[in-house]
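Researcher: Re-running this chain for the archive, since the previous output was lost when a drive failed. Same request as before.
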Amino acid sequence: MLLPNDIQTTVARALDEDIGTGDVTAGLIPAAKQASATVICREAAILCGTAWFDEVFRQLDPAVHIIWQHQDGERVTANAVLCTLQGGARSILSGERAALNFLQTLSATATATRRYVDLVAHTQCRILDTRKTLPGLRTAQKYAVVCGGGTNHRIGLYDRVLIKENHIMAAGSITAAIQQARQLHPGILVEVETENLQELAEATAAQADIIMLDEYSLADMREAVRITDGRIPLEASGGVSPETLVAIAETGVNFVSIGGITKHVRAVDLSMRFVA
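Model: Regenerated structure tokens:
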């Protein structure tokens, strides 16, 4: 898994908003005071975000030494020790919240993704993320999705054409929108969101690279799979939950996109404790 190239700037923003002109509470601790600490995961999870955690302390104080007991993508059990830190007490205290924020949020994304991935492991269907990410954490959450076993959809508006309802209305038709996309952006994948089998037929005839099935019934999904017969990858979207996912995947669609794995995450319960 390749790490994003914006970790340094993402962490710098987080430290700036948290520490600002200085940590007035950590300043109460003698400057020479050294400390050891452990980070504990209070619940079962998929770990993710170690590089962001490390970068927090690299920027604050490179002398803080971190030893990881687990790596990104690993399953960890409740009460597992994730890492130990040694270094200046002021630095550890000042970096604690920013470092844990990254770790708990990205681990939450990876954990949510793995939950869905495990549910469809008996099928060929892959779980996709969306652009419904937390502001400023797009690349970080996309990385976390991969750590959880999922697959990245487009990163932004620049790397894939995705023609949706409003685009179709403005362009005049699915066919016209696809033709315009081919002329303006040759070589870029063109995906079309469809809402019924009639739109599916038009998108197929216009040779879309991928077709999204938005809010289709299970029966219509199965019919879409039969009609396209493997010629065009199909992505199911809308109304997906742990209770509905398996039936959707078993229709034979290639992908299921789930915004909830990035926008509805609940932070993993972590704590940092100084060791005597």
